[in-house]
Amino acid sequence: LADVSSKVSGKVSKIFVEEGQEVKAGQLLMKLDDSQYKINLEQAQAALHVAQANYQKLPDDVKSAGAAVEKSAAGLTAAQASLKSTQVALNDAIRQLDKNQELYTSGAISEEALNTYKSNLEKAQSNYDAAAANVEASQAGLNAAQITVGSLNNSTAAVYMAQVEQAQAAYNSAKLAEDNTSIYAEFSGNVLRIPV
Fold first, then answer.
1. What is the pLDDT of residues 49-101, one digit of tens each?
2. How far apart are CA 58 and CA 37, in angstroms?
3. DSSP assignment of 154-169, as one string?
4. Which residues make beta-bridge pairs with 184?
5. Which of 12, 94, 134, 192 is 20 to 30 A away from residue 169, measured at CA?
6. Model-level pTM?
7. CA 192 to chain centre
8. How large is the C-alpha radius of gyration of the chain?
């Protein structure tokens, strides 16, 4: 004499045996309403697909972040070249003003001409300052892009993998619960009573 019970709770939807009937081990005895268990399984399966998709797109994210690093590095190189160019122009403007300051002092050029050289120096200094700021911004952009790549390579991969494992465990649990809505005979014998 043995009691057979369900591993999950639920309302009996169908009974496949009658009292007094002989059953064999593994024979389906009854089925519980599995509608909520199926919904839970579908939700768990969807969550697993999302987690797997996030993990699978990680290489694309890393590739995209790597391209951002390359673009930032190229931008930094261009900004540094521009800074060198504006440095040459600034040095030239300083030389021109110094030379023409002496000519003005000796009366060889007018004050208006000297003011033109002063204006040229101010423009060159402004261009240099802007180029220096651009180098600084480009360096900051490169640093940020490199941090993103490092983050994606290290922690993000671990997080995505943990999410896949968590979703897989939830799916396995939901599948087991759904499977347990079918109640089978654990051994051969006769059904004495069906307490439903």
1. 999 998 888 878 778 888 888 999 999 999 999 999 999 999 999 999 999 99
2. 32
3. IIIHHHHHHHHHHHHH
4. 28
5. 12
6. 0.58
7. 59
8. 39
Amino acid identity, position 73:
A
The single residue listed with the structure tokens 């709770």 is 9
Residue 114 near residue 100 (C-beta atoms within 8 A): yes
